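Try it yourself: sequence plus S-adenosylmethionine, in.
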Amino acid sequence: MLGGVARVMRAVRPGPATEERLLRWSWSSRDAGSLDEYLVVGWQNPRINVQSILVRHALVRRLFGSEFEDLMHAEIDFAIELNEVLRLESARRNVRMGAFLDPERRAEIRDVSSVIADREADFEERWRATLASRSGPKVSVIEFACGSANDYRAFADYGLAPFLDYLGIDLNPKNVANARRRFPAVRFEIGNAMDTKQADRSFDVAIASDLFEHLPIPVAAQVLAEAARVARHAVVLSFFNMAEVPEHDDRPVAAYHWNLLSRARYEEALRRSFTNVSVTPIADWLQREFGYKHSYNRSAYTFVAQRD
Ligand SMILES: C[S@@+](CC[C@H](N)C(=O)[O-])C[C@H]1O[C@@H](n2cnc3c(N)ncnc32)[C@H](O)[C@@H]1O
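Structure, out:
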């Protein structure tokens, strides 16, 4: 039904305005409880999700330089170890891991995840203890598509939040309400990443995770330009469906998108605004640097692009 309506809307009035309405509608149609939970369990749990960890590490480097490289390396080793426990346990129980809105599937994933419950907070405690003795100027951060404070929860739990002057925006009012309920004193606002209404270079860092694939290709280009515009120093972007292909592959799904993005095209676009662009193809990197062969997503990429 949603797919049919979306097809008609796209045919009658193609373009970014229609796509924005479809995006808002599709994300808002989900129930608030599911939105609050579905991207933070299983592989998406920010404590053990390598891309979430790399976002935190990029912020720590911006704050403290290379002081904590050993701890960061150890944290990736730890994440790999727990990812592997989850992989084996999900195979043993024959549970398909993923990001699901269906509560029964999430309950299965929670059951699988119970095998790491006694260890998953180990690095949370280490980071809290490490950062507790620190002080210094804050880094201002804008997060595009912050969901229900999915990654901010970890910024708070890991002791990073006191060092951040943070604004999270999301198109979906239910996500923003969830985020505000958890963190009433933090700025979470309903907003469109295409046009944030923020001044040029008004944040040190702009971050966005798992957003660009869900946008029409021209809208995603606009969002990238917006991130580059508002970021004074750096952008940190996580992608879940990217490949070494020459062009983006536009894949509309019902009311939104599930595009396959070209790494080369994003790198090229970022090099227009940033002097230093580092690209981490997660699965290859984990294999090459850490000897881990079973990354759950071979299409995951993290970009850190910096001006300085
Ligand atoms: C797959 S979720 C990712 C959420 C979070 N970044 C994470 O990684 O857990 C995509 C999010 O993008 C939001 N979104 C989609 N289009 C947007 C737009 N144009 N501006 C702001 N948020 C948008 C949706 O409401 C949804 O919360």
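One thing you can check immediately is this: The CA atoms of residues 156 and 283 lie 27 Å apart.
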